[in-house]
Amino acid sequence: MLSRLSRLPRRKAVAVCALPVVALLAAAAFAPLPFSLAQPGRTVDVLGESKGDPVITISGAKTRETSGQLRMTTIVATGPAVSLKLGDVIDGWFRTDRAVMPRDAVYPSGGDVQEIEKHNKAEMKESQETASQAALSYLGKDGEDIEVGLEAGDIGGPSAGLLFSLGIVDKLDGDGSGGDLTGGRVIAGTGTIDASGKVGPVGGVALKTQAAHRDGATVFLVPKAECSDAQSELPEGMRLIPVTSLKGAVSALVALEKGKGSVPSC
């Protein structure tokens, strides 16, 4: 092949060599790729209602009226059966309101849509249980006497744990001295939580800050390990507060509300 090409004029040789490359690019343009395209999803105020139902209900203890908002944030992604093409991936890479993510990172459980929804609902249920445990433990209240109900509608996954816990704390105790944790602000955030109150990373935070900004939030609570991701596409005017625990998140919000003490920053 090389000897035959060497006898061709340069322009013809280049054209012949380019044919396989063009063919490969054309095939790649139409071949399905193992990615999902994500974008900012809806946010929900855990102190309010979701589709007409209270997000947090508490029985067995006196609750307080709250002001401000604590908004859990979400992202939405193309489904596991949706095939992205090369053009979709390239377009997503160059947009700040989109993110191209490996499909396995978005849908680690695999399976079909029904199996994934079942998995996400199970994660949400577990997240709600640990969020309640973490909040009641932080407040030193007996979980056997107090019943907490959490309703997130069709939202799945574990990433609302921190906001659920903060909402329970605000409804039961506020800032501990009669005020609100929010200070009347619209505060958003994300993060998993375990029963001990430890906050964990989630993913998609750069998109979640955009969702929060769109819905009026000016403060965003982010797992400390994801500060750099949150800063990458941070909307103008949005303040990031890194957290590693429920206790730290409450302390930071109280300091912000009262204008006293140290408020962490990324």
TrEMBL record:
<feature type="signal peptide">
    <location>
        <begin position="1"/>
        <end position="38"/>
    </location>
</feature>
<dbReference type="GO" id="GO:0006508">
    <property type="term" value="P:proteolysis"/>
</dbReference>
<dbReference type="GO" id="GO:0004252">
    <property type="term" value="F:serine-type endopeptidase activity"/>
</dbReference>
<dbReference type="GO" id="GO:0030163">
    <property type="term" value="P:protein catabolic process"/>
</dbReference>
<dbReference type="InterPro" id="IPR014721">
    <property type="entry name" value="Ribsml_uS5_D2-typ_fold_subgr"/>
</dbReference>
<keyword id="KW-0732">Signal</keyword>
<dbReference type="InterPro" id="IPR027065">
    <property type="entry name" value="Lon_Prtase"/>
</dbReference>
<dbReference type="InterPro" id="IPR020568">
    <property type="entry name" value="Ribosomal_Su5_D2-typ_SF"/>
</dbReference>
<dbReference type="GO" id="GO:0004176">
    <property type="term" value="F:ATP-dependent peptidase activity"/>
</dbReference>
<dbReference type="GO" id="GO:0005524">
    <property type="term" value="F:ATP binding"/>
</dbReference>
<feature type="domain" description="Lon proteolytic">
    <location>
        <begin position="145"/>
        <end position="239"/>
    </location>
</feature>
<protein>
    <recommendedName>
        <fullName>Lon proteolytic domain-containing protein</fullName>
    </recommendedName>
</protein>
<dbReference type="InterPro" id="IPR008269">
    <property type="entry name" value="Lon_proteolytic"/>
</dbReference>
<dbReference type="Pfam" id="PF05362">
    <property type="entry name" value="Lon_C"/>
</dbReference>
